[in-house]
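anyone seen this seq b4? input:
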Amino acid sequence: MNWHLIKHQKTLEIAGLVIDAVRIPHAGWPGRSQIDNLVFRVTLKNQGASVTVMHMGDADPDEEHYLPYKDHWQKRISDKALSPYWFYSSAEGRNILADILNVKKSIGIHVPIEIPNHLKSSSEDYFSKPGEMRNIDKPHKHRMYIYILFYPEFR
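predicted toks r here
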């Protein structure tokens, strides 16, 4: 699949996976409008059960980017979303996750080495150390985990 050719939204089904990709502007929009960003939502169907995980990349936290796709997001709950930590900084960002994107639980990503105080004092979950893992709490035979890798050269 040539993901870079996606203009708005695309869905692909292959080998028990349903993969959605939606073009959402990069954080810092409109100043970074030349940088591509795709939000991926992947559903694994296995033995009558399914689990859905979303990865938002460096998505911009402005409702106007998400509302045109609200019907699309509402068709399937995301059990976990890997969302940029800056979505936790505002009511609008938290609303995007809970009400528009239909996310059950999110985990903040792209957290800087110096963890922002508002994030530390919040009850939000986030990745901040190399090798951290989270279980995807879903009642089915196969346990699934989210494992985040940090490359030392980026830390």
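The longest strand covers residues 38-46. Residues 3-154 form one domain. kinda curious what u guys think
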